[in-house]
């Protein structure tokens, strides 16, 4: 693989130093870098339209232009990551860009870090020239614009907001089809997404909230239809919250009396697979929300909560489960409360009664 780097620098000595480092890494680490050089912001912007994986920026360039202009442009208009090298790193105010003071990090180490980031596949999927970008171009022309008359008809029958949501839903369904038939196993971080709220007063099924006073997590399991807002309020006054128990407490409680390691391991595996008890559903730790250490939804601990209490300062919204997992949780929740025991009979007596009755039947000739 060839890593394509844009180096924005006007100091010829530093440019030669980077070239030398690239040659050394090629020999010693078998890593291949293709470097494009730009000595101005305008030249850099021009090169960004080509295939670039990563940008290294010297924040101080000759003339009136400075590298922070390029940093701002990168984060607003592109999906290309960057490292900034600056004599005054404190002047760069961006949560997305890593800044090093000049001389703090050797070019070889910097390039190896860049190679590791590119190897994650993140930019291949969602970068400026990634799989999603390419797919969206084809999708727009072949599926959307090609059928513009159909979309015009739909738009004439609905308001613009509804049509936009239909297009978004249709587009997301298309993106889902990009996945191969053979799906790799999930990583825990995939279970959670940041809830995309358009209305702070509307809650969604599968959102996890935190009760500040009780210091407890809960998941919203009211049906989606009950949570739709009408005149600023949902259809129901009570929202179904189900408590999330601390994972470490459950693991300890279910295994502390078990001495055999194999049996203890089996119990833990059953807990993780949601096979231990039908009232528990495991939620892994959330890397994006480190304060959440993982837990178990306990379907026995259901708390109908007034909507007004939920939107008050008593609760904080933390994150939401990904839709596939929401469906799975709801399915298990329904199974738990839908289970019914069969009315019991004295089956031994009934069996004997039937035997006696059958024995008293007259013989019947079968043709």
UniProtKB/TrEMBL annotation:
<protein>
    <recommendedName>
        <fullName>Response regulator</fullName>
    </recommendedName>
</protein>
<dbReference type="InterPro" id="IPR011006">
    <property type="entry name" value="CheY-like_superfamily"/>
</dbReference>
